[in-house]
Amino acid sequence: MQPILSISKLTKSYATGFQALKGIDLDVREGEIFALLGPNGAGKTTMISIACGLVRATSGRVTVGGHDIAGAYRAARGMVGLVPQELTTDAFETVWDTVTFSRGLFGKRRDPAHIEKVLRDLSLWEKKDSQLRQLSGGMKRRVLIAKALSHEPRLLFLDEPTAGVDVELRRDMWRLVDGLRRDGVTIVLTTHYIEEAEEMADRVGVIRGGELILVEEKAALMQKLGRKRLVLDLAAPLPAVPAALARHRLKPSADGARLTYTYEPGGGPVDIRALMVDLASAGVAVRDVTTSQNTLEDIFVDLVRSPAEPAPPGRAPADVEGR
């Protein structure tokens, strides 16, 4: 199946010499939710702006639905909706007029029923006759989303769509996203709320310094890099880990009251029973046992950290060898 978005050898350099993108290659499958994660300045918005035809690439190629964004701009751009980070609206237009006008910009015939559905889905219907200057910041964000959906795009870019908005909008936004996916709309998402990507995305890409350093199915990424931990609360503190337990590579807490056993879910069989037998043989009594696993946020922080930067205290870095 042909990807709905295909990016090949994409670069972007500025007159100052700064290289924002360094040879990006990415295919996004039709109907998926793709989360693009990266720190500020990594190149996320630049890549999206080029894919939407708003910024000219230095080199490389971007196609949407098989249409080159440079050579067949109208056809490609008509398939794309964009919710930008910035709140850019005409203060004196009404909600209804600005959303309807956005649809017309793409050469679409008037469709009041569609506009009404979008406004109702985003809890904007009661504000349809209000001027944009009368709306709160959260409501203006909803209007941007409505404008992006006005022309029924098949590929929707959400660039930090819920940054700085209320919980109600975030809930409405993700309910709408779920409905769009069921309708076959492909969504490319950037967000600082990594738990949203963990919950919603099918695949995850991580960009750092203008380079796409990882693209992975979310479930596979969690399996490969999501270390698990077995935390053993001891009946009595240990001054040191007994030599008989050395093969398990247990990490003691500062006060000796607990031991942490870390293992990779995909790293082969894990013999917890052998660990418990060795603990009993060494005379170490366990009061309680809990387990945990790295979240996507843990993995993301480890991936984007500079190689020379140490891991935060209390958390071992994820194994990213071979990324």
Outline the biggest β-sheet: 6 strands, mixed
Structural class: alpha/beta
Low-confidence stretches: 307-323
3D shape: elongated
Strands, total number:
14
Overview of this structure, please?
This protein is α/β, with parallel strands linked by helices and 323 residues long. 30% of the residues lie in helices and 25% in strands. It is built from ten helices and 14 strands. The strands form three sheets. The protein has a six-stranded mixed sheet with strand order 6-7-8-3-9-10, sandwiched between helices. A four-stranded antiparallel sheet has the order 2-1-4-5. The model is unreliable at 307-323 (pLDDT under 50).
List keywords for this structure.
elongated, 6-stranded mixed beta sheet, ABC transporter ATP-binding protein, Rossmann fold, Alpha-Beta Plaits, ABC_transporter_ATP-binding, 323 residues, alpha/beta, 2 domains, 4-stranded antiparallel beta sheet, ATP-binding, ATP binding, ABC_transporter-like_ATP-bd
Would you summarize the structure shown here?
The protein has two domains: 5-222, P-loop containing nucleotide triphosphate hydrolases (Rossmann fold, 3-Layer(aba) Sandwich), CATH 3.40.50.300; 227-293, Alpha-Beta Plaits, CATH 3.30.70. Helices cover 30% and strands 25% of the residues. The protein contains ten helices and 14 strands.
Task: Walk me through the topology.
Elements: E1 5-13, E2 19-28, E3 33-37, H1 44-51, E4 59-64, E5 67-68, H2 73-77, E6 80-83, H3 95-105, H4 112-121, H5 137-149, E7 155-159, H6 167-182, E8 186-190, H7 194-200, E9 203-208, E10 211-217, H8 218-225, E11 228-234, E12 251-252, E13 258-263, H9 272-281, E14 286-293, H10 296-304
Helix pairs in contact: 3-5
